[in-house]
UniProtKB/TrEMBL annotation:
Name the record gives this protein: D-alanine aminotransferase
Record EC number: 2.6.1.21
Pfam families in the cross-refs: Aminotran_4 (PF01063)
Lineage: superkingdom: Bacteria
Catalytic activity line of the entry: D-alanine + 2-oxoglutarate = D-glutamate + pyruvate
Cofactor(s) of this protein: pyridoxal 5'-phosphate
Length: 282
């Protein structure tokens, strides 16, 4: 299995990261996860452009272009003979003696990438998943795909401890997003999801879902919605690169609708699948 470190393709067992890498010490960097279907990346451009924007938002101009990264990742897929799976990549502000202040701009960033073979989440997409509610305790720049994920992982662990798949976060009365997914509700046939502001990560899957809905006359509304609206929704789904469009059938032990995935969620899953087929031919 090959990985990329700073443009080199090396065996994973030979990969070394310096212990003073700022990604390791401070979580000082940004990342992306791209889905691979049929050996082809899905929405790679969107993910890589978001990586550039995340970098800019933390004052780190990423030293590769979108095309350069795309070419490296394509080669990695090929070297690892990846058919269905994910590519993880992260860029940190580089290696420097530990100091909170940014190092000089001539310090090289650390770019790493690796692949993982995974199937589509067929069962969860078919049956739906259970969730819990947790207060969103994260910082106020959730639009940045930052390496700092403590708030997210603590939320996810609460879900796991409760025997659930995902934690739905809320800031007071307002539902924000999952620990690693966006949340949408459906009420009277309309898809409602939190606006893409600083309180959520603007998921590439979320954007694709909104696009296919708009193109297929499914009404969408990007606005804040309350816990009460969540609890009284007809349907709920989460979206994300690895979960695709997964229906939520239970929140904190309470059934959503009749406790099975609803018709609109099913339709959106189909439209999303079509988008994958169009781009990746599978
Ligand atoms: N929100 C958070 C907090 C995430 O970590 C993710 C990524 N899994 C998403 C939303 C969904 O983003 P995307 O569709 O780009 O994977």
């Amino acid at each position: 299995e090959y990985v990329i470190i700073n443009g080199d393709f090396i065996n994973r067992s030979d990969a070394k990261i310096d212990m003073e890498d700022r990604g390791y010490q401070f979580g000082d960097g940004v990342y992306e996860v791209i889905r691979v279907y049929n050996g082809k990346m899905f929405t790679a451009k969107e993910h890589l452009e978001r990586l550039m924007v995340s970098g800019k938002k933390i004052g780190m101009e990423i030293s590769y272009s979108v095309q350069e990264i795309k070419d490296m990742l394509t080669e990695l897929i090929s070297k690892n003979q990846l058919t269905h799976g994910t590519i993880y990549m992260q860029v940190s502000r580089g290696i420097a003696p530990r100091n909170h202040a940014y190092p000089a701009t001539d310090v090289a960033q650390t770019f790493v990438a690796n692949t993982k073979s995974v199937d589509r989440p067929a069962r969860n997409m078919e049956k739906g998943v259970n969730t819990i509610l947790v207060e969103d305790i994260r910082w106020l720049l959730c639009d940045i795909k930052s390496l700092n994920l403590l708030g997210n992982i603590m939320a996810k662990q609460k879900a796991v401890d409760a025997g659930c798949f995902e934690a739905i976060q809320h800031r007071g009365d307002i539902v924000t997003e999952g620990s690693s997914s966006n949340v949408s509700i459906i009420k009277d046939g309309k898809v409602i999801t939190h606006p893409a502001d600083n309180l959520i990560l603007n998921g590439i899957t979320r954007q694709k879902v909104l696009e296919v809905c708009r193109n297929n006359n499914i009404p969408v509304e990007e606005r804040e919605f309350s816990l009460e609206e969540l609890k009284s929704a007809d349907e709920i789904f989460i979206s994300g690169t690895t979960v695709e469009v997964t229906p939520i059938i239970e929140i904190a032990g309470e059934k959503v609708g009749d406790g099975t995935p609803g018709a609109v969620s099913r339709q959106i899953q189909e439209l999303f699948k079509k988008a994958i087929e169009e781009e990746c031919g599978c």
